[in-house]
Amino acid sequence: MMRTVSLLPAATEIVGALGLMDSLVGVSHECDFPPDANKKPRVTHCEIHEAGLPSRQVDRWVTETLASAGTLYSMDEELLRRLRPEVILTQRLCDVCAVGYGSVKAFAATLPGPPQVVNLEPSSLGDIFGDIRRVARALGVPDRGEAVVSSLKKRVDRVEAASSAVKRRPRCILLEWIDPPYCSGHWNPELVEIAGGTEPLGNKGSDSHRVDWDDVIAARPEVLVLACCGYTVARTIQDLPIIQDYPGWEELPAVRDQQVYIVDGCAYFSRPGPRVVDSLEILAVILHPEFFGGRFFSDRGTARLPLHPEKARR
After folding, report:
1. What percent of the chain has pLDDT over 70?
2. DSSP β-bridge partners for residue 224
3. For labelling, which of 36, 87, 204, 294 has a CA lying 20 to 30 Å from the CA of 115?
4. Separation between Cα atoms, residue 136 and residue 150, nearest integer Å
5. What is the pLDDT of residues 48-83, one digit of tens each?
6. Same domain, 122 and 176
7. Beta strands in the chain (DSSP E)
8. Same domain, 184 and 257
9. How big is the chain by its Cα radius of gyration, in Å?
């Protein structure tokens, strides 16, 4: 069994799906699923997680810190040396998501071995499946990787087959941040499409980016999904007054028709791992409950506006 360190929550979830949690000797400060991840030594740190800042200040801190320091995270290099990893799972997709790839690669070169550094850099659903295979190969279990991907693809195919029969594809905007607004990027616009919607602002296959609120108004979303990066449903609910105060909020078709949803960006939409298919199923329920609601999937704690107290607590 390969001694493995995961610097990315999605990578940790992939290791879990492969049935190799015992091989993990260290994880990042954000790795929290599967539950056994919480028993592993933490090898990274980020000050922002202790600051408790409002969303706009978080955005400012991230921008300024990346500009000045080049990274948001620090590694516990002494601990990593003691853990003696043979494989390090990381990424260079997004400097906001994990320790910079260059820093990891340079440090790994100083370790005995040196360990293999596996880069995960997905921009699409197919890329995520490719990463599962890549991790499986690196850990010596390629057949398990194929089995996991096959199971996930069957679920995707089920959604795609059902949504292909829909007669209307609602305009669905998925926001990855509220203050300031960021459109969806990478795999998320693709998920909207597969689930039977049209994403008028999403940046398919590319980075999420800041958008003007006027662009959201002009797109007239029939469904609005708030999937704030790294935020739980409860944390996003704290920011609701911000978006509800934006000019034109009440005139949005999604607001008038009570088609505004808050989803768990931390557990699902922000993580390019096995639970990305859960994200797809969540969107399917939201966009086409007549096909998916109650028949195939649950809402997994999704909150819908106006909030019901029992859902707001999830």
Report:
1. 85
2. 173, 260
3. 36
4. 13
5. 554 466 777 766 756 655 555 556 678 899 999 999
6. no
7. 4-6, 24-27, 44-45, 74-75, 87-91, 116-120, 172-177, 182-183, 185-186, 203-204, 223-226, 260-262, 303-304
8. yes
9. 20
Q: Provide the residue range defining the domain that includes 232.
A: 168-312
pLDDT at 313: 35
pLDDT digits (tens, 9 = 90+) for 124-154: 999 999 999 999 999 999 999 999 999 999 9
Element (H, E) at 151: helix 142-163
Into how many domains does the chain fold? 2
- Which tens digits make up the pLDDT trace of 279-296? 999 999 999 988 886 555
Mean pLDDT, range 264-274, rounded to an integer: 94
Q: How far apart are CA 113 and CA 86, in angstroms?
A: 7
* Other beta carbons less than 10 A from residue 110's beta carbon: 10
Pairing outcome for strands 260-262 and 303-304? antiparallel
In this structure, the answer to whether residues 116 and 203 fall within a common structural domain is no
Return the amino acid letter for 224.
L
Cα–Cα separations (whole angstroms), residue 180 to 56, 183, 239 = 6, 10, 11
The CATH number linked to 123 is 3.40.50.1980
